[in-house]
Amino acid sequence: MKFNIETERLILRDFLESDVHGLFELDSNPEVHRYLGNNPIKELHQIPPIIQYVQQQYIENGIGRWAVIEKSTNAFIGWSGLKLVKESRNHHANYYDLGYRLIQKYWGYGYATESARASLSYGFDYLNLQTIYATAQAENIASNKVLQKCGLKLINQFHENEVLENWYEISQSQWGEYVP
Ligand SMILES: CC(C)(COP(=O)(O)OP(=O)(O)OC[C@H]1O[C@@H](n2cnc3c(N)ncnc32)[C@H](O)[C@@H]1OP(=O)(O)O)[C@@H](O)C(=O)NCCC(=O)NCCS
């Protein structure tokens, strides 16, 4: 499966082996992992298996997170997109989850929102999904704002590893009525 989605400022494409250094910059930063369990990557050799894991999801599930490229510089800036979550979270399993993670120097430019909107459009308009879900730690203000700006609705909260998580949903019909 080859993905190549273009937005105003971004390209969303398949993970490539050559993304290894960009992903290391992303995932070795404790600030990036502040609301992700505080367990950043320590060694470069931990990255290739992550790339292979996502590439395997493209084959098995027809979808997985995409690399995000800034068009103006051609720089790898992080990842965004949909993932089929098979395990149970908050009493849901086998659901499509919206997520994103950006290298810190690219925060604050609206890139997460721009990429998330493109992911929702792909999920509803191309994959014809009925509902897309997302979670964010309640304290992760930036991520909660991104989800709300994209039209997702806060449904409930749950605890995971003693951390309070917000559970969001958006249906295909809500997406149809969504005005940015
Ligand atoms: C979450 C993340 C992807 C957001 O990326 P981003 O490109 O900066 O997001 P956007 O610019 O599209 O939107 C962020 C919004 O949060 C706001 N925001 C960010 N930090 C904030 C804070 N501390 N207090 C209030 N608002 C804040 C921004 O102002 C912006 O809102 P606005 O457009 O109304 O001004 C980025 O911070 C990141 O990668 N964090 C680490 C990984 C992570 O937490 N991923 C999500 C896991 S659920």
CATH superfamily: Gcn5-related N-acetyltransferase (GNAT)
Order of helices and strands: EEHHEEEHEHEEH
- What is the count of distinct domains? 1
* Class per helix and strand makeup: alpha+beta
Percent helix range: 25-40%
CA(first)-CA(last) distance:
29 Å
Q: What is the mean predicted local confidence, pLDDT?
A: 97
Low-confidence stretches: none
CATH topology, by name, is Aminopeptidase
- The appropriate CATH architecture is 3-Layer(aba) Sandwich
Q: Give the percentage of residues in beta strands.
A: 25-35%
Level-1 CATH class name: Alpha Beta
Main sheet: strand order:
1-2-3-4-5
How does the major sheet shape up? 5 strands, antiparallel
Bound molecules: coenzyme A
Number of strands: 8
Taken from the alpha-carbon principal axes, the silhouette is: globular
Q: For the CA atoms, what is the radius of gyration?
A: 15 Å
Please provide a written account of the structure.
- By secondary structure, this protein is of the alpha+beta class.
- The protein has a single domain (4-176), classed as Aminopeptidase (3-Layer(aba) Sandwich).
- 29% of the residues lie in helices and 31% in strands.
- The protein is built from five helices and eight strands; from the N terminus they run ββααβββαβαββα.
- The strands form two sheets. It has a five-stranded antiparallel β-sheet.
- A hairpin with a 2-residue loop joins strand 7 (153-160) and strand 8 (163-171).
- It is globular, with a radius of gyration of 15 Å.
- It starts with a strand and ends with a helix.
- The protein binds coenzyme A.
- Coenzyme A binds next to strand 5, helix 3 and helix 4.
- Coenzyme A is lined by residues 32, 35-36, 100-102, 107-113, 136, 140-143, 145-146.
